[in-house]
Design a protein that fits this description.
With 159 residues, this protein is an alpha+beta fold. The protein has 2 domains: 30 residues; 124 residues, Immunoglobulin-like. The strands form 2 sheets. Strands 1, 2, 3, 4, 5, 6, 9 and 10 form an 8-stranded mixed beta sheet that branches. Strands 7-8 form a two-stranded antiparallel ribbon. Strand 5 and strand 6 form a beta hairpin. About 4% of the residues have low confidence.
């Protein structure tokens, strides 16, 4: 084959792959439901790894979904690693409260790479750390993935 024919074939193949990947990614993202997360406590002073117990995450679903009844609570994950040890419906509003062990949230904060460190020692300062929670709706509500993040303000004091 001539070089020009090979170049055209290569460009056609590459274009097909790129269009297919873009279509697949856009379809996957369109199937997600956004969520808002509010952490309690929302501020944390990092001293000797003494984490609050429990740490609560209030989950609201966007698009008119009701977190209290639509979320499959067994699928909730913090940072893709940690599951809550309990969940409960909020007294007011369509939100679900997930209870996490403080050590799990502390580990997610440390692993988030949003707090600067030097050789494993956190640099003193105040940092806004975003932690992601994901999960799925119950099958009767479509089993759709939801995803959202909430901020915890972490203060690392001077030694």
């Amino acid at each position: 084959m001539k070089a020009r024919t090979l170049a055209l074939l290569y460009i056609s193949l590459l274009t097909t792959i790129i269009i297919g990947a873009a279509f697949t990614l856009s379809r996957a993202a369109a199937g997600e439901i956004g969520a808002s997360i509010a952490w309690d406590p929302k501020n944390y002073l990092w001293l000797d790894n003494n984490f609050p117990e429990p740490w609560h995450a209030e989950i609201w679903l966007k698009g008119g979904h009701k977190a209290q009844i639509e979320i499959n609570t067994t699928t909730i994950q913090l940072a893709g690693l940690y599951s809550p040890y309990a969940t409960e419906n909020a007294v007011h509003g369509p939100r679900l409260i997930a209870h996490f062990h403080g050590v799990q949230v502390g580990a997610a904060l440390a692993a988030s790479h949003q707090i600067p460190d030097h050789m494993g020692i956190f640099i003193p300062g105040t940092y806004r750390v975003y932690l992601e929670i994901t999960g799925y709706l119950k099958p009767e509500y479509g089993g759709t993935l939801f995803r959202g993040d909430g901020v915890i303000v972490v203060t690392i004091p001077n030694p």
